């Protein structure tokens, strides 16, 4: 019963529509009516610039971290003998937060793709793996200025790190890592199509104007 309440709490945390509130409260517009129509960090970068995009990304990541941290409210799961159950609960809480981000109750169930919140989940469970993924993301972003491509490659790097570099022993976590990569690729089909056509929008890293190239 307590686990159910925690899952509800994780969903409500994930439902905080950061991009929508920032776009409406600061810029006087609804981010979902511009760009790709998604209420996420990528579209915020594209439409409102790097400062707003960075803030939205950071808060959306924090949602994933906070959702995972709810697991520590149950002392049973903090026992070393229940490590597998703890990891499973944390992944469950984080995934529910991602669902909340995609279908936020606070924003008429129209949210983003959940990539930043998903990353927050990984950051809370395995910080070192998350930092490696951040390194991959930032490197690709610096080289290409495509947030979508950076997200895709970082997500593919995630199971590679889990399976071959860090050799994670938890079977469920290994499956989760593969599922994450597949999910990110599937949810970025339109972005992949635009990348192949050379019409995907870049984000301005050092200037407050859009790059039209």
TrEMBL record:
Task performed by this protein: Catalyzes the transfer of an acyl group from acyl-phosphate (acyl-PO(4)) to glycerol-3-phosphate (G3P) to form lysophosphatidic acid (LPA). This enzyme utilizes acyl-phosphate as fatty acyl donor, but not acyl-CoA or acyl-ACP.
Membrane topology term: Multi-pass membrane protein
Known catalytic reactions: an acyl phosphate + sn-glycerol 3-phosphate = a 1-acyl-sn-glycero-3-phosphate + phosphate
Keywords from the named record: Acyltransferase, Cell membrane, Lipid biosynthesis, Lipid metabolism, Membrane, Phospholipid biosynthesis, Phospholipid metabolism, Transferase, Transmembrane, Transmembrane helix
Compartment list: Cell membrane
GO cellular component entries: plasma membrane
EC number: 2.3.1.275
Record-level Gene Ontology MF annotations: acyl-phosphate glycerol-3-phosphate acyltransferase activity
Membrane-traversing stretches: 52-74, 86-109, 115-139, 146-166, 172-188
Subunit structure: Probably interacts with PlsX.
Primary localization: membrane
The protein's name in its UniProt record: Glycerol-3-phosphate acyltransferase
PANTHER family in UniProt: GLYCEROL-3-PHOSPHATE ACYLTRANSFERASE-RELATED (PTHR30309:SF0), INNER MEMBRANE PROTEIN YGIH (PTHR30309)
The organism's taxonomic lineage, starting at the top: Bacteria, Pseudomonadati, Bacteroidota, Chitinophagia, Chitinophagales
Family: Belongs to the PlsY family.
Pathway(s) of this molecule: Lipid metabolism; phospholipid metabolism
Keyword Lyase: no
GO BP annotations listed: phospholipid biosynthetic process
Pfam families: G3P_acyltransf
